[in-house]
């Protein structure tokens, strides 16, 4: 998937809003949304919430995980663990980007939250690159990608074909014909991991 497609999927997650207008239900392809009653909270697709917020027709109710203490704890756990910590939302980066850029005034301590989410993202992406690098160097037979989001996985895809090609040439030079089998196994495993992850 391309980045735009991944963001599109994330935009369909629901988020709480408090509208300041009244309106009958809106019928979308995904189902009915509403009715809207001024002052009464409801959950709607993220993309619609951003549209209404830009029109100043609602206030965003930030997800419970957009909390400084919770994110600080999550950051420390991510730093300590060799594995990937389960994130509170599969689309946390898309949600954070849209909410914090569109309606930061609706999120208490929005600047601190934005910084913490960026820190967590950087830690996880660095861990993902290290894990993949170890696999390509033959230091690990399996790559554990539990709790890695599709958006995070996408960050390593651009360099994988080049890395696999380089690995192929190095192994062929060192080991001769037997290298082809090793590289093919690595390629099959990586394709399997990517394919199985995309189905979740």
From TrEMBL:
It is found in: Nucleus. Keywords: DNA replication, Nucleus. InterPro entries: GINS_A, GINS_bundle-like_dom_sf, GINS_Psf2, PSF2_N. GO terms for biological process: DNA replication; double-strand break repair via break-induced replication. Residues 65-170 form the GINS subunit domain. Residues 175-200 are annotated as: Disordered. Residues 3-61 form the DNA replication complex GINS protein PSF2 N-terminal domain. Gene3D superfamilies: 1.20.58.1020, 3.40.5.50. Residues 189-200 have a biased composition (Polar residues). Component of the GINS complex. PANTHER family: DNA REPLICATION COMPLEX GINS PROTEIN PSF2. Belongs to the GINS2/PSF2 family. This is DNA replication complex GINS protein PSF2. It comes from Culex tarsalis.
């Amino acid at each position: 998937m391309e980045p735009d497609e991944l963001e599109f999927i994330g935009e369909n997650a629901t988020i709480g809003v408090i509208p300041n207008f009244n309106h009958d239900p809106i019928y979308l392809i995904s189902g009915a949304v509403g009715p809207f009653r001024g002052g009464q909270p409801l959950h709607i697709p993220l993309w619609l919430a951003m549209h209404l917020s830009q029109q100043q027709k609602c206030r965003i109710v930030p997800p419970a995980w957009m909390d400084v203490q919770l994110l600080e704890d999550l950051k420390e756990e991510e730093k300590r663990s060799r594995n990937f910590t389960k994130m509170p939302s599969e689309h946390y980066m898309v949600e954070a980007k849209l909410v914090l850029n569109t309606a930061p005034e609706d999120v208490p301590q929005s600047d601190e939250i934005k910084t913490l989410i960026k820190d967590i993202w950087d830690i996880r992406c660095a861990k993902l690159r290290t894990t993949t690098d170890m696999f390509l160097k033959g230091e690990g037979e399996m790559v554990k990608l539990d709790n890695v989001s599709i958006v995070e996985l996408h960050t390593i895809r651009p360099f994988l074909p080049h890395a696999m090609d380089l690995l192929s040439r190095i192994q062929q030079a060192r080991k001769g014909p037997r290298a082809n089998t090793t590289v093919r196994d690595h390629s099959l495993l990586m394709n399997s991991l990517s394919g199985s992850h995309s189905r979740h």
